[in-house]
Amino acid sequence: MKPILTFSLLVLTISFSYTQTNNRSAQQKEIISKLSGHSPITKNTLLKDRHSNRARKVSAEYLKYKISFFCDKSEIINYKKRARNVTGSIMATSKTNQWIIIGAHFDSVKNSPGANDNATGVALVYAVAEYISTLEVRKYNLQIVFFDQEERRFKGSKAYAKQLLENKVNVVSVHTIDQLGWDEDGDRGIELEVPTDQIRDQYSKVAGEYNYTFPIQISDVTSTDHRSFRQLGFAATGITEEYKNGDTTPHYHRSTDTYETVNFAYLTTITEYVQKVFEDMMK
Ligand SMILES: [Zn+2]
Question: In angstroms, what is the span from residue 84 Cα to ligand 1's centroid?
Answer without folding.
Answer: 17
